[in-house]
Design brief:
The chain is α/β, with parallel strands linked by helices. It has nine helices and 16 strands. It starts with a strand and ends with a strand. Bound molecules: NADP nicotinamide-adenine-dinucleotide phosphate (NAP).
Length: 329
């Protein structure tokens, strides 16, 4: 294929625009791999980048998409040969390098993870950056001493990609999971994924004092802002909060009390540049012992590249849930 189709984002004197374009294939240079992309996915960051509503891209124009999976077509990296199935997420994709919303992706081979046994491109992208980020949060919390006896795990932004994955993984690992969601119609769906209880977004609104009654053994926070502050005030001694997202705000106004009197830990999670050994380990877990049992129930839509603008608008308006797979090829 000498020319291929891509969803490309521009920002210039004419302003922001994005859509499908034909691009010409270029050969891989030393260390690079050419991947024939079959699947990608939609993450919150993709919606911000694709609509121009968030400052995600550092250079223009770029192909969007932080996720990609497919088959190696050409390789100048010693670790990969044509025919290998691979996953690429994060790194410079849709940041300062072309991303996964294209039939062809040319990337440094060091950005790739070999497809683990038990996954294919479609299931890997159903998991995508959301699954990898949830796995990173779980990993960081477990390494820092999280255990079921500390109390339930609170997951907010629960109906979103990262939230639903975090619920499923912690439930599978034997934790009691409490979900916070602003979508009452999805409470039953969240229970089927593994939530023991589902609360509304206002559940912690009264938690204003530096230390409130300890209710959670740990938390995965996709929301940030005031809800993260409320979580710091209500976490049990020794508990961990994985700081993942900012769907509700990027500020954090709290006190040092939870940290110095309860030994609470706030663990930053950045899925973009997880070092390769840990990245490979987390994908191995996702394919096996941390694999969400109801992955098919988390996949709520499959779209083509042409439908991305509409999907981005729905996601930013809070009208999507679960995971959205992009069928590229
Ligand atoms: N650190 C990292 O490496 C990393 C990786 C991936 C994503 N993220 C971030 O994590 C967050 C979740 O990403 P995602 O891909 O899962 O997005 P998503 O699928 O759009 O999910 C976000 C969820 O947050 C909740 N929400 C939205 N607006 C809210 C508001 N104003 N207040 C409270 N809750 C709100 C909604 O859940 P309910 O309706 O159920 O409440 C929504 O489904 C985003 O901020 C994203 O940028 C970070």
């Amino acid at each position: 294929m000498s020319s291929y189709t891509a969803f490309r984002i521009h920002q210039d004197e004419e302003g922001h625009r994005a859509g499908i374009e034909p691009l010409t294939r270029s050969e891989p240079t030393e260390g690079e791999v050419l991947v024939r992309v079959t699947h990608s996915s939609v993450n919150y960051k993709d919606a911000l980048a694709g609509t121009g509503r968030g400052k995600i891209l550092r250079t223009f124009p770029l192909v969007g998409g932080v996720d990609a999976a497919g088959q190696v077509e050409d390789s100048r990296h010693p670790g990969y040969r044509p025919g290998d199935q691979v996953i690429a997420t994060g790194w410079g994709m849709s940041f300062d390098h072309d991303g996964g919303y294209a039939q062809i992706l040319r990337v440094p081979g060091d950005w790739l993870v070999p497809m683990p046994e038990g996954l294919d491109s479609a299931t890997a992208m159903t998991l995508g950056t959301a699954g990898l980020t949830a796995a990173l949060a779980v990993h960081r919390m477990l390494v820092n001493g999280q255990r079921p006896e500390l109390g339930p795990i609170l997951v907010n932004g629960a109906s979103g990609g990262v939230g639903s994955m975090a619920i499923a993984i912690f439930a599978k690992l034997g934790y009691e999971v409490v979900a916070i969601s602003g979508k009452p119609r999805l409470h039953d769906w969240l229970r089927t994924l593994g939530a023991a209880r589902v609360l509304g977004r206002e559940a912690l609104a009264g938690a204003r004092r530096p230390l409130e009654k300890a209710q959670w053994g740990g938390a995965v926070d996709n929301v940030g802002g005031e809800m993260l502050a409320q979580i710091t005030r209500t976490l049990a001694p020794g508990g961990n909060i994985a700081a993942v997202g900012l769907a509700g705000g990027h500020e954090l106004n709290t006190t040092v009390m939870p940290f110095i009197l309860r030994g609470v830990s706030l663990l930053g999670c950045n899925s973009v540049d997880i070092p390769l050994p840990l990245r490979t380990q987390l994908w191995g877990h996702l394919a096996d012992d941390w694999r969400p049992p109801r992955l098919e129930a988390m996949l709520t839509a499959t779209v083509g590249l042409g439908e991305l603008p509409k999907v981005f608008e729905h996601m930013l308006a809070g009208e999507t849930h679960g995971r959205i797979l992009v069928q590229v090829d």
